[in-house]
């Protein structure tokens, strides 16, 4: 009886931790090319010092695996896109993370942004200049670990 209770308790903890993880912005996400509709990269969103960051951990197109951010300015100029931090310094604000920046390696521009978990496996990313009303929204889908 005690072993059965231990097993059920362990199973409950495991299930809760899995569902909590599924409800988090943290983890691996697929970024989709808006022109082709195909997944072009895998982004890892991680937490550091209480803030959210993200970096490109996989590029799907074999011809782009060694691409550099030639349109980026400053410290990111000509850095490899693979491994590049594209989200920096977002802080949790209720049900979204905001106050940080996002880098678009396709054009080298940096935007203010916020991210929000729309569904357990769908992340909304809104990049903008000035006001959030004027900007662009993308959606990432959770990658299978």
UniProtKB/TrEMBL annotation:
Keywords: Signal
Residue stretches making up the DUF2147 domain: 27-142
A Pfam family per the record: DUF2147
Signal sequence coordinates: 1-22
Segments traversing the membrane: none
Domain of life: Bacteria
InterPro entries per UniProt: DUF2147
PANTHER family named among the record's database cross-references: BLL5882 PROTEIN, BLR1215 PROTEIN
Protein name as it appears in the record: DUF2147 domain-containing protein
């Amino acid at each position: 009886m005690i072993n059965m209770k231990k097993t059920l308790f362990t199973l409950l903890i495991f299930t809760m931790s899995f569902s909590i993880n599924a409800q988090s912005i943290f983890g691996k996400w697929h970024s989709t090319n808006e022109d082709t509709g195909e997944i072009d990269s895998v982004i890892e969103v991680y937490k550091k010092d209480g803030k959210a960051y993200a970096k490109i951990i996989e590029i799907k197109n074999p011809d782009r695996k060694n691409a550099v951010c030639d349109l980026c300015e400053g410290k990111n100029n000509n850095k490899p896109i693979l491994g590049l931090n594209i989200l920096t310094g977002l802080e949790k604000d209720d049900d979204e993370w905001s106050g940080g920046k996002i880098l678009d390696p396709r054009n080298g521009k940096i935007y203010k942004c916020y991210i929000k978990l729309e569904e357990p496996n769908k992340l909304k990313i809104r990049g903008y200049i000035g006001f959030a009303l004027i900007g662009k929204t993308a959606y990432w889908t959770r990658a299978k670990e």
